[in-house]
Amino acid sequence: MVRNSAILSPVYRLVSANGSRCRIFIIEGIITIVVAFASWWLIVPFPEHCEFLTPEEKELMLARVKEDSGHDANEAPITAKLVLHHLKDWKVWAA
To answer: What CA–CA distance (Å, rounded) separates 79 from 87?
Structure first.
């Protein structure tokens, strides 16, 4: 069994001691789901909507985003039609 995670090494020892390899997938899946739900609250919103930034800090962040991207990052909203348009592109699936 390949051991590539120092965080999960105690779990790998537990699984290899019991001889059940499928448990590791369940444990890693549970950890992934917990991290996904936690990230909903941990990832900060776009600078325009941040509550912890002062107005000066918001202006600075928006200027940096505009300078970095060359345009307004909130220009076009993501719609189902736009997503379907990109999903239909064969180059997305070929890559």
So the answer is: 12
